[in-house]
Amino acid sequence: MYQVSPQDNLFLHMESSNTPMHVGLLCIYDQKTAKTGQVRFKEIIRTFKTRLHKLTPLRLRTVKVPFNLDYPYWIEDPDFDIEYHLRHISLPKPGDWRQLCIQVARLHARPLDLNRPLWEATIIEGLDNIEGLPKGCFAILTKVHRAILDREIGGQLLAALHDLDSGTMTQLPDRPLTVERVPTGVELLSRAAVNRVKILGSYAHVAQRYALPVTKGLLKNCLTRKSCIRYAPRTRFNERVSFHRSFDGISFPLDAIKAIRDARPQTRFNDVIIAIIAGGLRTYLRAKGELPDESLRAVFPVPDRPAKTNEKRVHHFSYVFPRLFTEITDPLERLERIAAHMDRARNQSTWLDWQIADDAAKLFPNTLADMSLKAAVTYQTTRHAHPLFNTLISSVAGPHIPLYHVGARMVASYGLDMIYDTVGLAHTAFSYNGNIAISVTACRNMMPDPALYMECLQQSFENLQHAVMAEEPVEEGA
Questions:
Q1: Model pLDDT for residues 85-141, shown as the tens digit of each residue
Q2: Number of CB atoms found within 10 A of residue 321's CB
């Protein structure tokens, strides 16, 4: 048993029926590569059962301290039931891409049960009419709460459930699984009393660490009359989100993205991804007659490797807030501006470092954080707040070799992210086996037509590819 970290605790506090704090991965498989040419649900259950022992976080659930007087604790669930976390559905005929996207959006909109281990997987059959995929494919949509997910756990989950060829057989664990006794309220309150004394020291530590830098920054901004906060223009994606979600995805050849990167000096792979998304957003909002004159902004998580910490699990992510330069009509110029801006952001103090976020979370007692977030949702304070960014963009490097699940070859994969009030649009770029898929998770009220947005992303990619290779400006519209 160990305590939930301050950052992870914020994800638990932000959880609501409209804003579930989980992310997802949609993997599509061709079952014809399996030994019998068909994969049965019981085989998938057996694979999860025999390999889940490698992933302890998927057996953890939270135990709250009475009256929320301290951060909750993770314990290995004594009542863990693997079959509760595995669901099985089938698409109605004809089983096309649109039906799959609608079903995935519905499943992703449903919150996880916070009284159980925070994940679930749904097997979706009947993918019989999707262009570019063989008939009879099935998909697995895995949802994992952000409080237990980091980059290492995500990679371990992908590795544990897949093989490098279609003939590998699953093996039973060579040791029994361990569970823990649920602590009593008296035990948790005793721990909370001890932690209250310890946390007083953290206030002094945080004050010592940031007092001088913050004071210097405020004085500098006052003398130069510059604001340290740069707001983003308000768009349709920066309102209160509803319960409903929309989802879609589009794939591009990985070599084509690399060719664009290699053709422009000082440009990185993620700069190209951001530029494609920026062009897509510009085209989409312009078609709606809602393109702001000012550049849109995004938040982009960057993995970090900080100094060693005593915490068992801390999310080592920093955040950078790039401008998207959506006011620029030429995609080549936009790419160059994004690359230069991202380069400065990586080397200057425009990061929100993981340590800063963790320290900030420590300053708020658990009861105060809970009350503040609930009050913000109740009184819809986000409606009156100016957005700091318009969308979330994340990039995940997946394996560049084919993977197999119960002998079925994975033919495509798409990521799903969480959205919340003022940030109703999230992009996930996931690379796998020579392709990179850019998928979107959005509030359905804000993006009711994700297929149109996919066309905008395709057009943005083609415009950028043509501009880079031809070295000619391409006007996307004034």
A1: 999 999 999 999 999 999 999 999 999 999 999 999 999 999 999 999 999 999 999
A2: 16
Using alpha carbons, select from 56, 99, 44, 130 the residue that is nearest to residue 412. 130
Tell which wins on pLDDT, 179 or 109: 109
For the segment 287-302, the average pLDDT, to the nearest whole number, is 94
C-alpha dist (Å) from residue 193 to 53, 112, 185, 197 = 34, 30, 12, 7
State how far the alpha carbon of 374 is from the alpha carbons of 15, 291, 388, 419, in Å. Answer: 10, 33, 21, 17
Residues composing the chain: 478
**Cβ(148)–Cβ(52) under 8 Å?**
no
Quick one: pLDDT at residue 190?
78
Q: β-pairing, 435-443 with 425-432?
A: antiparallel
Distances (CA, A) of 201 to 120, 353, 383, 454: 39, 21, 36, 51
d(CA 255, CA 269): 11
Q: What is the pTM of this model?
A: 0.87
HEC profile of the chain: CEECCHHHHHHHHHCCCCCCCEEEEEEEEEHHHCCCCCCCHHHHHHHHHHHHHHCHHHHEEEECCHHHCCCCEEEECCCCCHHHCEEEEECCCCCEHHHHHHHHHHHHHCCCCCCCCCEEEEEEEEECECCCCCCCEEEEEEEEECCCCCHHHHHHHHHHCCECCCCCCCCCCCCCCCCCCCCCHHHHHHHHHHHHHHHHHHHHHHHHHHHHHHHHHHHHHHHHCCCCCCCCCCCCCCCCCCCCEEEEEEEEEHHHHHHHHHHCCCCCHHHHHHHHHHHHHHHHHHHCCCCCCCCCEEEEEEECCCCCCCCCCCCCEEEECCECCCCCCCHHHHHHHHHHHHHHHHHCCCEECHHHHHHHHHCCCHHHHHHHHHHHHHCCHHHHCCCCCCEEEEEEECCCCCCEECCEEEEEEEEECCCECCECEEEEEEEECCEEEEEEEEECCCCCCHHHHHHHHHHHHHHHHHHHHHCCCCCCCC
Q: What was the pLDDT predicted at 318?
A: 74
Distance of alpha carbon 207 from alpha carbon 128, whole angstroms: 60
Q: Which two tokens stand for residue 199?
A: 């946390």
Instruction: Give the pLDDT mean for 257-278.
Output: 95
Using an 8 Å Cβ cutoff, are 387 and 232 in contact? yes
The answer to whether 390 and 238 are in contact (CB under 8 A) is yes
Contacts of 159 (CB under 8 A, 6+ apart): none
Given this model, what pLDDT does residue 188 score? 77
Q: Residues 269, 274, 279, 284: is their CA dihedral positive or negative? A: positive
